[in-house]
Every structure is written in structure tokens, then in C-alpha cells.
């Protein structure tokens, strides 16, 4: 039993050895064939080199090849390059570590040189031209828009003015009609002979008193600039004070006349009461002006007397 079990194992072991022998023989044959094919060109090359060296020594040219030899050399197949078996060896752990250290030391970057300070950018002519063109375009556009807006606003105002003129045409006509009606009403109020004569007389007196008051106030102001000596006539102060007293009395009388005439007109819608009211306000203002001019003239006269007394005492 032991012998039968051992036989198969011996057979199984013999089979791989036979396979290895066949592979070795095929490899030996291929190597021999490659050596023979490589030796043929080397022999021919050696022969050619010897012929060239002999010809060089003897000084004669090497014999030319015949056409048959050229044809045979061209038709001869070129030898194939010998195949060399290369084996790669895996580096050990220490070798790989040393190689990595050497690589890291080789690949270490060098320190960079300090960069130069950047030069200030100088705008070139093209850039300046582009900027000037942009500004010119913007300026022209704004000017065009301004002119357009002004023309549009002027046209709108003209249109609105025409509309207002058309709307106020009726109002202007009604205003003219109203003024004409009031003037006719005033003429109707003056249709009474007594009232018309009294109003005419009062208006004449009022205008005369107004002229006198203007002249008298101007004379009172001039008295303040007169010198306080013998060259000044004291009668000027007296005459001016008399005139101012008369004007004050005239203003009072005119005020009384205005009040009497306004009481004669009973209609509230009449224009005469309004006229009388305005005249009364003006007369009251004139009375105040006359009183101020009178006090100024009196002060100037007193100053003149004191100046003359001082001169006589001196």
C-alpha cells in the first residue's frame, strides 16, 4: 500500500522537472541562434575594416564592389537586435530611506531674492487720451441733456401760460366790468350837489395842507444845522413855529370835515366812506409829523438862546 501511494507522488514530481528541462533547452537554442546571427555581421564588418586598413597602408584604393555583390548586400536581411534580459532589484528599506533623504535634500527650494520695489505707474498717452475722451463724452452728454431739459421746461411754461391766459380771459373781463361798475356807483354818490361840493373843497384843502407840511418839515430839519451865533436870525424859528401851528390846526379841521362827510353817507356799500376813511388816516399821520417838526423847532430855538447867552457872558 505504501508503494502504490508513493508512485503517483513521484510522477507528479517528475512532470515539473521535465517541463523545466524543455524550457531551458528552448532558451539555449534561442541564445545560440541570436549569437550566430550577431556573429555574421560582425565577421563581415571585421573583413571590411581590414580591407580598408590595408588599402590605407598601401596607398591604393579598395576594390570596388561588383553589381552582384551590391545586390546581394542589399538583399541580405539585417540582423535583429539582441534582446537583453533586464532584472529589476527592489531596493531595501534602508536604501529607500537614504534615497528619499537625498531627494529631499536636493529638492529643497532656494531662498528667493528680495523683489525690487514696484515703480510708480506712469499713464501713457493712450490712457490719457481714453480718459479725456470719456470726460468729453460725458460733458457733451450732460450739456445736451441740460439744453433739452431747458427747452422742455420753457415749452411747458409757454403752454401753461397760454392755458392761464385763456382761463383768465373771462376773469379779466369780469374785473374790468367790476371796476367800471364801482366807478359808476361813485359817480352816482357824487350826484348830490352838497356832498360833491364838500368833497371838492376838502380835497383842495387837503392837497394844499400836504404841500405846506412837506415844506415845513424840511425847514425844521434845516434849523438843526444853523450856527448858534449872531449870524443866525431868531425870527426864523418864530415864523416856522407859526406855520406849524397853522398846519396843525388845518389838519384838525380837515379831520373834522372828513368825519362829518362820512356820516352824511349812509350806504355801507358806497365808495365815499372808504375814501373818507383813507383820508382820515393820512391826516392823522400829517398831524404827527407837524407835531414832531414843531417840537424840533422849539428845541432848536432854545439851543440858540442858550448859545447866545453863553457868548454874551463870555
Strand pairing plus helix content: what structural class?
Answer: mainly alpha
- Tally of contiguous helical segments: 7
Q: In CATH's first tier, which class of the domain at 192-313 applies?
A: Mainly Alpha
Low-confidence regions: 1-19, 32-43, 58-62, 77-91
Question: What is the number of E strands?
Answer: 0
Order of helices and strands: HHHHHHH
- Rg, alpha carbons: 72 Å
Strand content: under 5%
Mean residue pLDDT: 71
Under the CATH scheme, the architecture of the domain at 192-313 is Up-down Bundle
For the termini, the CA-CA separation is: 188 Å
User: Which bin fits the share of residues in helices?
Assistant: over 70%
The name of the CATH superfamily of the domain at 192-313 reads Phosphate transport system protein phou homolog 2, domain 2
As for the CATH topology of the domain at 192-313, it is: Methane Monooxygenase Hydroxylase, Chain G, domain 1
